[in-house]
Amino acid sequence: MLNDWFQNHKRDLPWRADPTPYRVWISEVMLQQTRATVVIPYFEKWMRLFPDVATLAHASLDAVIKAWEGLGYYSRARNLHKGAQQIVERFGGEIPSTREELMSIQGLGPYTVNAILSFGFRKRAAPVDGNVTRVLARFFAIEDNVCKQAVKRKIAQGAEALLTPDEPWVTAEALIELGATICTPRPRCEICPLNKNCLGKERAHLLPIKNIEKELTQLKRAVLWIEAVGKVLVKKGEPGKIMADLYEFPYFEMEELWPIQKIKKAILAEFGLKPQVIGQGPQVTHTFTRYKATLFPFKFRLKTPQEIVGYEWVEQNNLSKLPFSSGHRRILHL
């Protein structure tokens, strides 16, 4: 029944048209913590730029990060790049088809491995993401916290048990589709194909039970656009930092919005610069990991660029070619 429902109601998504192991891998990594409608243009652009493992492996990291710009969680892009290089070095550019070999590739965890095995190689495997967890917590009326390892194993076993013997990959994708379109946080039980056998449908709106998410830490930052003879001062995120490999403009942390004179004093103290004030742009909000930053952009001008350790001056016309963090990218566009 679930397989029939999926074949009749599945969304038309580009990675489903030709589910090769490579296309499955890229799409599943992109879909982590990102809606399918957002992923579609990124996926299509990625396939134009990096149509296969070898192309991705030989691309520069900057090009990969730039193609990922806007999707967030940039470690995923770095892992894709490194993983492609490992596949070229160890497996001749062909994505392996065994669980053990797949797990040896950087960035591939149990969910992505199962997705590649199921959708890419059509093997019996049950990828369990947040959508499937929600569906099965309700279907089996699981009242325990789904973040506990024992409960995760129980749900994985339940997903495995539901796979049909003839086309298990269809069932696996149907469970994901069901969670994405019908068994959503606000469930539509009346049209669900599993309604008759769902043990938790009367309490569906209360399930699954999860850890309470921590509140976001609020930040305020004065962001500095400092230009000199057509160049702008920027800094590339250091490896291991939250914004690794991403470019940002200089900024200062503030507890409350600083007056312009205080910002000028801070620029002099930090960079030894005395720029001319040009103006102030509209504020921008930027959410990342457990933070929500409100960015207050200020524009300054110098007569000549001065060397500053850890920073670089980039031609203004070339800024759009660099991968920026999302908040600073919006400032660039403004």
Write a concise synopsis of the structure shown.
This protein has 334 residues and is α+β, with helices and mostly antiparallel strands. The protein is built from 14 helices and eight strands. The longest helix is centred in the N-terminal third of the chain and has 17 residues, at 75-91.
Describe the structure.
The protein is α+β, with helices and mostly antiparallel strands and 334 residues long. It folds into 3 domains: 1-123, Endonuclease III, domain 1, CATH 1.10.340.30; 124-213, Orthogonal Bundle (Endonuclease Iii, domain 2); 217-333, Nucleoside Triphosphate Pyrophosphohydrolase (Alpha-Beta Complex). It contains 14 helices and 8 strands.
N to C succession of SSEs? HHHHHHHHHHHHEEEEHEEEEH
Content of β-strand: 5-15%
**Oligomeric grouping of the chains:** single chain
Rg from C-alpha positions?
A: 24 Å
CATH homology group of the largest domain: Hypothetical protein, domain 2
Weakly predicted, low-confidence segments: none
Keywords:
334 residues, alpha+beta, Endonuclease III, domain 1, Endonuclease Iii, domain 2, Nucleoside Triphosphate Pyrophosphohydrolase, eight-stranded mixed β-sheet, 14 helices, 43% helix, 15% strand
